[in-house]
Design brief:
Structural class: alpha/beta
CATH topology of the largest domain: Glutamine Phosphoribosylpyrophosphate, subunit 1, domain 1
Oligomer: single chain
CATH architecture of the largest domain: 4-Layer Sandwich
CATH class of the largest domain: Alpha Beta
Largest sheet: 8 strands, antiparallel
Number of helices: 19
Strand order of the largest sheet: 3-2-4-1-10-9-11-14
Strand content: 15-25%
Number of strands: 24
Radius of gyration: 25 Å
Bound molecules: fructose -6-phosphate
Helix content: 25-40%
Length: 608
């Protein structure tokens, strides 16, 4: 979703802003812009479409100045045009702002400003913030404090004024903002990806914080102007990991990073002799867990698919009942949640608005709040008391891959940790832990398979308008995930279904050549899945299966096997998703689509 970068330093602001925006591109956007204070005037450049359009303008209109703000916009209020791109300025050209989020009192504010004679140049809610700031007097920080009570909704805003060429003011309520403290320069951004190339010393702003960044330093106050202290943290992210490293797309690179990401996640949470899971110090302490009688998993999208697999892990290993909810539904359905509930928000970004709201709702009801999250210091990280970091590193491709497989690993580790807490561990735990440590090797074998193997799959899928992904048990969520990957990046319609449901409706879709992709590795219900596949085969379906190479009963039945090495049933979902990620990737490449930034999608969905 939208990206923010602000810069105050000694270098020319424009190249720094453009570099920051480039690094934020992965979040998804449809226009971009920047503003700098150049000789006591605010100069704004904006362009619809890709960042290269803005870069072209910056090339044609060189701007100097060491203070500036930049933005990539994902349209909410108003079409993705140049007029609606950020930064937005007030009518007098005194103030410019960039904004992530949505103002809920947009219509009322807009009406009032128009009634008061303020001319508006865009359809955005962001312009209203600029106009309100422009009508106030005093320093930029003072103006912000006076305008804050008039803003309802979610916002992360960075503002500058031509009257204060040495100041940026950043404030948030909802979407994240992080300040980067560099050598003779301070940056502010919507996520750390935009900063790590310049500094790793960061301050995460909290809701209600107003940060005044000047050449004298950083001052943070609350909405009443009272000073607040925020910790300076040092990030452990390697900036090189946010580069493509020779791969054609971030998605492909991230698919290939999965063995390492899994290795790092597993090793981070094993005990000293690597025979069991140690969750001590992560907030999952025995005394906190003693009263837990049920578990709720809340998440969105791919993370929700991880939760569906997590339900199997947690119920089987802890014998506690587990419910899985879309966060956007949970927050409005008055769930039965209380002090006896462990609620785990699963989120790559840690900033998904619905997941955060669901977690907050559960927290207010007294639940023990946990998170499985890929970004240390994110909002989910701060909201939870029990926290497990997936060690996937920055995920830039919009379609989630390595975050998903590390979420599955994390859920299995949490299940094993809770099982140990409940005194249920036996020899099986040691076997699972040993198998988890071997899993990266099996995944490397899947990644080594020649891409030519996917050719037939690409042909079968692109020859049709729709396809079905089928699975059973723990592999049903993998069918959902395979279908989502294909939809997201190839724009071809696909549905995931539990194979046993075929006869209850979807089988009506099957006709000659209709692609059916089955997740058919060796779980106990595989024979039943094969029965379902015979039914679609006899109606003309083209069949692709993810299965072990040696499974003759599968290869006899299908047109193409995407092979995976044999692993224990619990680990099969983690492995079986990889060929489906690659299949979706090859289809999108074949169709010439923008794999890393699919249309209409945002990496971090910070609005409801
Ligand atoms: C799909 C995808 C999305 C996210 C969803 C939740 O490839 O990436 O479906 O999984 O938007 O995001 P997080 O995990 O950041 O909460």
């Amino acid at each position: 979703m939208c990206g923010i970068i602000g810069y105050l330093g000694t270098h020319g602001a424009v190249p720094v802003l453009l570099d920051g925006l480039r690094r934020l591109e992965y979040r998804g956007y449809d226009s971009a812009g920047l503003a700098v204070v150049d000789e006591d005037d605010i100069r704004v450049l904006r362009a619809a479409g890709k960042l290269s359009n803005l870069e072209e303008k910056a090339w044609q209109t060189p701007l100097s100045g060491t203070l500036g703000i930049g933005h990539t916009r994902w349209a909410t209020h108003g079409a993705p045009t140049e007029e609606n791109a950020h930064p937005q300025t007030d009518a007098s050209g005194t103030v410019a702002v960039v904004h992530n989020g949505i103002l809920e009192n947009y219509s009322r504010l807009r009406h009032k400003l128009l009634e008061g004679g303020t001319p508006l140049g865009s359809d955005t809610d962001t312009e209203l913030i600029a106009q309100l700031l422009g009508r106030e007097t005093g320093s930029l920080g003072e103006r912000v404090l006076r305008v804050l009570p008039r803003l309802d909704g979610q916002y992360a805003v960075v503002a500058l004024s031509r009257e204060e060429p040495d100041t940026l003011v950043a404030f948030r309520n909802g979407p994240p903002l992080v300040i980067g403290l560099g050598e003779d320069e301070t940056l502010v951004a919507s996520d750390v990806t935009a900063l790590v190339a310049r500094t790793r010393r960061v301050v995460f702003l909290q809701n209600g914080d107003v940060a005044v960044i000047s050449r004298d330093g950083l001052r943070i106050v609350d909405p009443h102007g009272r000073p607040v202290e925020r910790e300076v943290e040092t990030l452990d992210w390697d900036p090189g990991r946010a580069e493509k490293g020779g791969y054609r797309h971030f998605m492909l690179k991230e698919i290939h990073e999965q063995p390492d990401a899994i290795r790092n996640t597993v090793l981070s949470y094993l005990n000293a002799d690597r025979s069991g899971v140690a969750l001590d110090g992560l907030g999952f302490e025995p005394e906190r867990l003693a009263g837990v009688r049920r578990i709720h998993l809340v998440a969105c999208g791919t993370s929700w698919h991880a939760a569906l697999v997590g339900k199997f892990y947690l119920e089987e290993l802890t014998r506690l009942p587990v419910e899985v909810d879309y966060a956007s539904e949970y927050r409005y359905r008055a769930p039965l949640v209380g002090e006896d509930t462990l609620v785990i928000g699963i989120t790559q970004s840690g900033e998904t608005a619905d997941t955060l709201a669901a977690m907050e709702e559960a927290g207010e009801a007294g639940a023990l709040l946990g998170t499985i999250c890929n970004v240390r210091g994110s909002s989910a990280w701060r909201t939870a008391t029990a926290r497990l970091l997936t060690q996937a590193g920055p995920e830039i491709g919009v379609a989630s891959t390595k975050a998903f497989t590390t979420q599955l690993v994390a859920l299995l580790l949490v299940a094993l940790g809770l099982r140990a807490n409940r005194g249920l561990s036996d020899h099986r735990d040691t076997e699972i832990v040993a198998a988890l440590q071997r899993l990266p090797l099996a995944m490397e074998a899947v990644l080594e398979i020649d891409s030519g193997r996917y050719r037939t799959g690409v042909e079968l899928i692109t020859a049709a308008d729709d396809s079905l992904f089928l699975g059973r048990g723990t592999l049903y969520p993998i069918a959902l995930e395979g279908a989502l990957k294909l939809k997201e990046i190839s724009y071809l319609h696909a549905e995931g279904y539990p194979a046993g449901e075929m006869k209850h409706g979807p089988i009506a879709l099957i006709q000659e050549g209709f692609p059916v992709i089955a997740v058919a590795t060796a779980i106990p219900t595989r024979d039943k899945l094969l029965g379902n596949l015979m039914e679609v085969r006899s109606r003309g379906a083209a069949l692709i299966a993810v299965a072990e190479e040696e499974a003759a009963e599968v290869s006899r039945l299908v047109d193409l096997v995407l092979p995976v090495p044999p692993v224990s049933p619990m680990l099969q979902p983690i492995l079986a998703v990889v060929p489906l990620q690659l299949l979706a990737y090859h289809v999108a490449v074949e169709l010439g689509l923008d794999v890393d930034q699919p249309r209409n999608l945002a990496k971090s969905v910070t609005v409801e």
